[in-house]
Amino acid sequence: VQDRLDLLKSNTHNTVNSLLDTFALALAEKVDAKIKNGQEIGLLEGIPFGIKDVYMLQGTLATASSELLKNYKSPYTATAIQKLLDAGAIPLAKENCDSFGHGSSSENTIFGAVKNAVNTDLVGGGSSGGSAVNVAKDFTVFSIGGDTGGSIRQPAGYNNVFGFKPTYGRVSRFGLMAYASSTDCVGPIAKSIEDIRIILNVMSGKDVKDQTSYQSSEISASNILNAEEIKTVGYFKNFIETDAIDPEIKSAFLASIEKIKATGIQVKELDFFEADTLVSTYYTLAMAETASNLSRLDGTNYGQRIEGENLKDTYSITRSENFSEETKRRIVGGNQVLSQGFSDEIYLKGLNLRDQISENFEKDFKEVDIILSPVTPNTPPKIGESLKNPLAMYLSDAYTVGFSLGQLPTLTIPQGTATGLQITAAKNNDELVLKFANFLK
Ligand code: GLN
């Protein structure tokens, strides 16, 4: 633990805020004592991990990388994090991310842009950028990210590590700051499929504090080694046959498809919604939900407060001064989408498209066991580029947001490209995703 803390501190492009040193070291001493006394130790005893700074860990700062919450302390601990602590894992750092999960590059943060682990001129990806970089650089053994529209899978891909978004509801969201509640998922970033499996098992389960959580069965190590039940794999033609995809990503993806065919697994081309439709449906709903979720941050109960002449001024100055440009863009967009005169035309249309997307997946999973896709159409942008062109940043989410809207389990595995391969299965088939990842190994 001490070595890893030193590594974190000596890192010149540090992605870390609010180090938990004393806390971590005290826990590590407890582990040492347990081992010396011959006491039984937990499954994750002594394993250091990082936490995207959108989770509650009692007594530590929970900033969401935002000005508004920069001094806010967690009054309680998130369920998923508590389960990790109960298994003996040691929280080392709260990790830099896009403010409130808003972004795909980890530049929308008060702590400075997260730099890519492979090439520091490039972004670390987002919004769980700090979490992916910390794992890639071995500062933490694993990190807990948050994925609403790709925020675990995309930075995992950009930094050559594994990142898993479980089926929606498999892991309790209690204690995760809400971005878009209908797609928010808690998941691990790690260096192996086996680590992902273990961490997922520890965090999963029904929680009375999250009504959308459900009880799932444990994924056993031996189960994920046997891939015989995977007969057919599909991919979306329009994700690959488009000018929008980087040629190297396209050829690496098609090479993987050829390898899979050579094993005797059937490969099917599938039809799907256009990238523009997926991105606009996701952003319509995500902006609406975040505008609603963030309305409680008005300086009354949480975070920074700037006094105005009256209450209305106080709300307005507090929010105008403390939310970032990107977050304000989403609040304004979301409130417009929900407002009278627009909601039927835009919000309800978004909900309707989401249903169509889910139906499309149900139909697809009658024909194929697994859907494969690159994680992004593009390679990681240079630092600064995404800030200049938010629309291009939104479009870079084209391959991840559909699976979020469908609430499906989906995993990024490194593929020797700058983006990785995304493996998706039907709802609650998380085990099959890990099985197929193991098979490709
Ligand atoms: N990039 C997407 C967005 O900004 C996804 C973010 C996330 O999953 N938190 O909405």
UniProtKB/TrEMBL annotation:
SUPFAM superfamilies: Amidase signature (AS) enzymes. Pfam families: Amidase. Residues 1-434 form the Amidase domain. Gene3D superfamilies: Amidase signature (AS) domain (3.90.1300.10). GO terms for molecular function: glutaminyl-tRNA synthase (glutamine-hydrolyzing) activity. InterPro entries: Amidase, Amidase_CS, Amidase_dom, AS_sf. Belongs to the amidase family. This is Glutaminyl-tRNA synthase (Glutamine-hydrolyzing) subunit A. The lineage of its organism: Bacteria, Pseudomonadati, Bacteroidota, Flavobacteriia, Flavobacteriales.
